[in-house]
Structure formats: structure tokens, C-alpha cells
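Protein Entry — a single chain follows
Fields — amino acid sequence, C-alpha cells
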Amino acid sequence: MEENLMEKYVKAVQSAVRQAPIKKGESVDVSDLWVITSLPKDLIIECLKSFDVKIPSNIHSITNRGRIVVKNPNYSRNAKKENESSEDFGI
């Protein structure tokens, strides 16, 4: 796949992660990212696993059907929601 096109998909996924509802267990589900982006779920998962998708520190993980796809290494239980914080997540 063209590198420039893949960069656009990664940016779309990053943006969707910030907009998605946070579920119990402080996770975001791939199905919510799919609703926001309209990208195929397998492409969303590829972006999450293969590229440096920045995940806000208040999100523990991103799941698919209850299984963890990626864990956030920067997770902080005490982090504020991104829209409540001025912290830049590098996006």
C-alpha cells in the first residue's frame, strides 16, 4: 500500500481514538473506531499494531471483541481526559 495513503489512515485512527467513547476498563473498542472512520476493521488493527499510533494516557488499551489489540505503554490511571488537558499527544 502506498506509504502516503497509509499515513492518512494512521492519522484517521489516531483522531478516532481521541473521539471514541471509553468503555469499562478504560479501553476503546475497534468497532467504535470503525464507526468513526469507516475504515475496515482489519486496516484499523494493522495501523494500531504496525505504526506508532499515539494513544492518550487515559486509555489503557484498544480491544476487539473483548480481546486486547494494543496496550498503551503511557497509560496513567490518574490521567485526565484529553479534552480536559492541554497535553499534546504528538498528533
